[in-house]
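Batch manifest line 273
LIGAND: zinc ion
JOB: complex structure
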Amino acid sequence: MHTIQYKTPQLTVFESALFRTTSTLIETEEFLLLVDPNWLPKEIENLQQVVKRKQGNKPLYLLFTHSDYDHIIGYRAFDNAQIIASQAFVDNKEKTSILQQIKDWDDENYIKRNYPIEYPTVDIIIKADGQQLQIGETILTFYLALGHNFDGIFTIIDPLGIWIAGDYLSNIEFPYIYHSSDAYEKTLAKVQPILSTHSPKILVTGHGDVALTHQEILKRQTDSYNYIHTLRTSIQKGETFDFEQLMEGYDFPKIMKAFHNGNVKLLTKEWRK
Ligand SMILES: [Zn+2]
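JOB STATUS: finished
ARTIFACT:
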């Protein structure tokens, strides 16, 4: 079963035993919204039970922050939901390989699931910054969040003041850049406008702890900017990046070295262009 990382009457942030990945449930008088239900079969079964217990006659919305396999792994465990994701998520050409990553992971870990592994079919497609979805008294505002991968979204839920950030603004991971460092910085630049427009009370990140103050959100933004800037500069000047110093702020040096090396490769490619 998941750990419950954070809870209010309308928000529960579940945390998986794996990679501290979050699954988020928002409940209002009018609907349930489940974000990125993930990882282990027992954890997903628990989410199924929680949803069943709370749903009653309310519609269930399922939101995918982006298409990385760990975030879509629980899709078909929740039927009769309205699915929300971005246009790029719909147009993703790597669907087959994403599903293969799930199947490989389950195989390597002897995992069986009581639901099929499929790529989400999206009902509500997010196409542009500022797009809104009103459900009763609640307004969801979406912003495209690219850079980590190419189909991410931020979702701000008002008036609850909840910001669902996907794999950005984590306190336990430096930026993992699979798509573009420029796009990543443009996404980070959306922090201030979002803070001033919505004044969120809580930010839920895809991996790690929720942020409860604007100060904490801004600190994470600065840390992310600094990492990208330092890495880019080191590549452009041909200097060594001080990975050991970076790791003073993070916990898992072996796996994080692999992600860092991936970033080095991508930014080197960008620099050579
Ligand atoms: Zn991701």
